[in-house]
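Sample pair:
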Amino acid sequence: MENIQIHGAEVIIKGVPAAPGIAIGPVYLYSKQAVRAHRKPIEAGEVGPEIERLRGAVVKAEKELRKIVEFAQQKLDPDDTKILEAQIMILGDAILMGTIEKRIRAELENAEFIVFDEISKYKRLMLSAQDEYMHERAHDVDDVMNRIMRNIQDQKLVSRLEGEAVIVSETLTPADTIIFSRNKILGYATDLGGVTSHAAILSRALKIPAVVGLRTVTRHVHSGDLVAMDGYSGVLIVRPSDETIQMLHRKASRFKEFEERLTEIVGLSAETLDHKHIELSANIEFSEEIPFLREQGSAGIGLFRTEGLLIGRTSVPSEDEQYEEYSAITNETFPHTVIFRVFDVGGDKLAPGSFHEENPFLGWRGIRVLLDREELFLTQLRALLRASTRRNVRLMFPMISTVEEIRRARRLVTRAQAELDSRKLAYDPGIKIGVMIEVPSAAMMADRIAAEVDFLSIGTNDLIQYLLAVDRDNTAVAPLYQQFDPAVLKTIKMIIDAGHQRNVWVGMCGEMAGDPLATILLVGLGLDEFSVIPSVLPEIKKIIRSVKFKQAKRIAEKAIGMTSPEEIRSYLSSIIKDQIPDIPLEP
């Protein structure tokens, strides 16, 4: 497989770095016993006892989660425990639980089967989306379902270990992550997951190294095997050699020294040596991440994904519910700016059970859904506008492919403002509006689009996939996904130049913005704002503060004239090693 290499006795598995650090030690292979939901008809007279079994399991699940929250509060910032509290809210969803009980009465089926069948509907819809974020939220819903079913069947889980261990599992839930942290855990490694998973977020908060998305790591290790895990580069090595272990110890020391030096610049601005200021902000999707991004020196939130409000719900949250959430985030971020991306979901999220697309990636999603579902969009717009009174809110529209879509969306903003005026509710009348450039048609029309908005934000994850016709989750073609492809760089330059010609600032919120190797290049191309995952903020700031803008422009001009991703990558790596040798780049 593409993510596995064999060097002598070593098996090197590449995944996704989720929490920084080096871990070397024995494996504890955590295999959850599958919770099976066998269908079992019941008699009418058994309905009452069956519902009592269900209710008892839900009560027990809630008690378990509350105990885990209490333990988590001893180790984490209170905001971090909201991840688990969200699961408690699902258990308390009267509509969901009421539907399950109703089905038991009507269909005369056993409780665990109905729980599995009902909650699986939502899980399947999330997993069918071409969206890593929705996939991660599906695992959280799955955790609630399995917890209820496990309690109905009175199954137990392992939570105590002897000695130190690197936990290896197919996937880890937030509760797993917290419970295992009571032991001497060296690190977490999973087949599934991404940097936005709740387990990854909690690993970072707990300061436990983690690598996720290893695909088949559970097939290559057994409990007791020695492994070395690199949470900086996202690699796990089975049966590491003495030389590899020594190399990783040196790397750990180097990164520790580097991170200690980075604390000195956390409070400083991101500006080049010749005083070109760059806005440096963070991508987040949960309010519990805000304290961490503050510690990392963020100048605000460059991308707040609002889809989290839809997870684990059977209905869209009301205007007031959304307002409370957005307002809390805005107040906590003030005086810095927060850019809210409006709901970026596919149609399957809003028409559960009745909506199917052969290719959702090219289908009804993002702004297309919102323009067709005007009341849904207006409700969110009114809530966001109401949260903008401190004048630090920006709105951003996703999946824009035409100028007309922006004009229609802006007309709806005007309509939402008029509706708030009629209710005498305050908002920022000068609120800034921007769009994500993540579709090639939008990139080609960036000059016309820039004339309609206040800012542009380049979403490289989707843009590169569309531009190169590569699904990076498809292992057969994933190596073709190259962010340093010359076509990608020329497209980014075209977008930035188009924005600047219209006096509109241009940012980037895709993964490329958080790659240290790309920083000087992007500065040189004229990027005004980087929005990255919080953990890399200090490193990106360090690089920006170590170069002159004039020098970065020359580097970008040379790189963009090259003909292959490998040549560009090698050139940029040599620049970093020569100009900023204390940046610990991967070999």
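The longest strand covers residues 22-30.
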